[in-house]
Amino acid sequence: MSRVTRSAATSYALSLAAMEEASRVGLRQADLEHLFLALSISEEPAGQVLRAEGVTLRAAREAIAEHHTEHLRALGVDHEPPAPGPIVFHQTGGYEWSERAQRVITLANKHGSGDAGAVLRELLAEPSGLAAELLARLGTSAAAVTERLEVAERIPTFGSRRAQAGPGAERPGVAAEREVTSPGASPARNQLMRTGTAFVPAPVAELWELLIAAERMPEWDVIVGEVELPAELRGLHPKLGDAWAATARSEAPDGKPMRVRPERRSLLVELTQLDEHSRIEWRMSFPDEPSANTRVIALSLAPAAGGTQLGITFGWQPPADRPAAGPLRRAQRVLLRPALRFVLWLQVAQLGSGISRVFRSA
Q1: pLDDT of residue 336
Q2: Is residue 220 domain-shared with residue 147, that is, in the same domain?
Q3: Are 181 and 121 found together in one domain?
Q4: Are the CB atoms for 7 and 115 separated by under 8 Å?
Q5: What is the pLDDT of residue 192?
Q6: Distance between CA atoms of 307 and 55, rounded to whole angstroms?
Q7: What pLDDT score was predicted for residue 155?
Q8: Are residues 232 and 106 in the same domain?
Q9: How far apart are CA 192 and CA 356, in angstroms?
Q10: Tell me, what DSSP letter sits at residue 157?
Q11: Among residues 92, 88, 122, 85, which one has the least CA distance to residue 11?
Q12: How high is the mean pLDDT in each 10-residue block of the chain (362 residues)?
C-alpha cells in the first residue's frame, strides 16, 4: 500500500472513530481528546502500543471525563459534565475537525507517513499537552509510549510484505487486496478480495456472541436490514451449513432511503465456516438474481490487549456456471480495478467499524 493510500485509510478510520466519539457527548466538532480516543482503538501499531500501556478505550474515556471535571472546577463550575450517550454520528450530520486536531493530522502527513504512528507522535508533541496529561492520568508517559512505538514499528508482522521484503516495505495493520481462485476455477476466473484488520474493544467471547447470533447481523452489517430465521433456529446458535433469509436495508441510519434494486432485496445467508471463538464465514446470495455475485464475509478472532484483533476478508464470488470472461470484459476489469479495490476496501472498513461500534456505543 502506497504512502498516499495508507494515509487516506488512516485518516478515514481516525476521522470516523473520533467523530463517533464526539457524537456520544453531543458535539459536532471532534477535538484532540476524540482523536486520542480514536487512536486508542486503532488496529495499527500505534493503537496496539497505547493499549499495551493501559490506554484502553474505557480507561481513556474515564481519564478524559476526569480531566473535564477538574477543568470545570478550576473555573468555578462545580457540576459534572453531561453523561455520554450512544453513538449518533450516523443518524446526524454536520461533523468536522477542530482546527488544532486538523493541524495534528496535517503535520502527521507533512513530517511522517500519515499513518496512526505519525498522528500519535504529532498529538504527543501538540502544544496544549493534553495527550501527555491524559497519559499521565493513565499511569504512563509520552516518553514510554514513544519508545514502545519505535520498537513496535521495527517488528514486521508475519506474512506482511515488510516481513518478506525487509525494511521499508508495507507495514501491517491496513487492508490489502489479494487474488483468490475458487476451487477448480481457471486463472481468468480469479476473484479480487480484500483483507484487513480491525480492533474491537471487547473480549473474544463477547465478540463471538455477537457474530454467532444470526438475528444480530443488522447491528453491524450495513447491507442487512432484517433477518428472518426459520423456527428451528430461533433462540439458538446456528450450525455449520445452516441458512436463513434476510432482507436488504432500505433506509440509512439517518432515515434517508437507500436505493436497492428489487431483485437485491432478498438475501439468502449461509454459514459456510465455523471454528468456535476463532473463525466464521457467511455467503450471501440473491435468490431473485441467480446470476449475481455472492457476497462473502470471513472473520477471524484473536485475543489482544484490551479486546480482540479482528481479521476481515470480504469479496464477491461469481456463480459457478458463469461463462469465462472474454478479452473485452477482461480489459474492462483491468480499467475498473482501482474503483473495485476502493469499493472492497470501503466494505472491509465498514464491517470493522460496524462490529467495533456495537461495543463502543454502549
Answers
A1: 65
A2: no
A3: no
A4: yes
A5: 77
A6: 12
A7: 79
A8: no
A9: 25
A10: P
A11: 122
A12: 81 97 96 98 96 97 93 79 89 96 96 95 97 97 97 69 35 42 39 90 97 96 94 88 95 89 95 97 96 95 96 92 70 72 92 97 80
Torsion of CA 342, 343, 349, 354, to 10 degrees: 160
Contact 179, 186 (CB under 8 A): no
Residue 7: count other Cβ atoms within 10 Å of its Cβ.
Answer: 20
DSSP 40-70: HT-SSHHHHHHHHTT--HHHHHHHHHHHHHH
- The DSSP bridge pattern shows strands 266-275 and 191-200 to be unpaired
Are 85 and 234 found together in one domain?
no
The burial of 355, by beta-carbon neighbours within 10 Å (0-12 exposed, 13-18 middle, 19 or more buried), is given as buried
Q: How far apart are CA 9 and CA 5, in angstroms?
A: 6
Among 92, 120, 153, residue at a domain's last position = 153
Q: Which three cell numbers stand for residue 30?
A: 471532534
Q: Give the residue carrying C-alpha cell 499537552.
A: 129
3-state secondary structure of 91: helix
Q: Where are the beta strands (DSSP E) in the chain?
A: 29-30, 96-97, 176-180, 191-200, 224-228, 243-248, 266-275, 279-285, 294-304, 307-317
**Main-chain dihedrals φ then ψ at residue 164, nearest 5 degrees:** -85, -35
The Cα 30–Cα 38 span in angstroms is 10
Tell me, what's the pLDDT at 320? Answer: 79
26, 32, 37, 39 alpha-carbon torsion, rounded to 10°: 140
| Segments forming the whole domain that contains residue 350 | 176-360
Which of 10, 344, 27, 300 is CA-nearest to residue 177?
A: 344
